[in-house]
Amino acid sequence: LCLAVPPQIVNISSDITVNEGSSVTLMCLAFGRPEPTVTWRHLSGKGQTFVSEDEYLEITGITREQSGEYECSAVNDVAVPDVRKVKVTVNYPPYISNAKNTGASVGQKGILQCEASAVPVAEFQWFKEDTRLANGLEGVRIESKGRLSTLTFFNVSEKDYGNYTCVATNKLGNTNASIILYG
To answer: In this protein, which residues make up the domain named Ig-like (predicted)?
Structure first.
């Protein structure tokens, strides 16, 4: 007498956060009779691809594109598969994806924008030459939300023209971009 036992995942890795470039091993142990087949797949936006036909999924030198949810399924044709998920967060240093020079006439409003991708989210600072700009000083406003930071001049004057630096920082590093406000 051979008893059929539905597949059951008995142990699976917890959600993890790692730095880009690290190696990661995800584990998914399953029980059942007959012995279930265990597969891993990455639930990415680019279609769902099988990653591993095994209880262990090894990722060496993980990249930011490999972050997201990983799904383990245990299948043995006795009953519906047992499916569990693990979330992998990949930290990476900031990179500035958008910083354009901007023109504004004297007396008009001028807006400089700096966009940076980073995990954890970047903190922004603005400088003119070597001077750090502070919110509310000399008619400027700095607003940072998520990936975007804006430096707004409410009433552009000649002395506002010139080169500004946007610095994006998180615990993994920093990067900067030069942006010119011109007349």
So the answer is: 7-89, 93-180
Query: In this model, does residue 44 exceed pLDDT 90?
Result: no
Which residue matches tokens 């990476």? 92
Element (H, E) at 110: strand 110-119
Domains and CATH numbers, the chain: 3-90 (2.60.40.10), 100-179 (2.60.40.10)
Neighbours of 21 (CB within 10 A): 12
User: What is the C-alpha to C-alpha distance for residues 80 and 141, in angstroms, rounded to an integer?
Assistant: 57
Q: 48 pLDDT band (50/70/90 cuts)?
A: low
pLDDT digits 0-9 by tens, 63-111: 999 999 999 999 998 999 999 999 999 999 999 999 999 999 999 999 9
Task: Say how far apart CA 141 and CA 151 lie, in whole Å.
Answer: 6
Segments of 22-81 assigned E as strands: 24-33, 37-43, 49-52, 56-59, 68-75
User: Position 149: which residue type?
Assistant: S
Give Cα 10 to chain centroid, integer Å.
30
Global pTM? 0.86
